[in-house]
């Protein structure tokens, strides 16, 4: 009981070539998509590094502003003490 397969070899090879071409096209599309994603990831990494630097600058700026505020409040308090506590007493 043998089964005779009667199909032209050219047809079979043609179908195989078509399927290989489709696979090749899909692979090319995937490679292009991967390259685009890699570019986007690189851009996002640069943005993250930039945000880290900005955060460091803001933290440093806040520390400087806090110490400036403390200095201003200390000077105002010292001026108030001198004006209302020390100067109202007449010097004999």
Automatic annotation (TrEMBL):
Segments forming a coiled coil: 6-61
Transmembrane segments: 66-86
Domain of life, source organism: Bacteria
Keywords: Coiled coil, Membrane, Transmembrane, Transmembrane helix
Claim: Transmembrane is one of the keywords in the record: yes
Protein name: DUF4164 domain-containing protein
Species of origin: Microcystis panniformis Mp_MB_F_20051200_S9
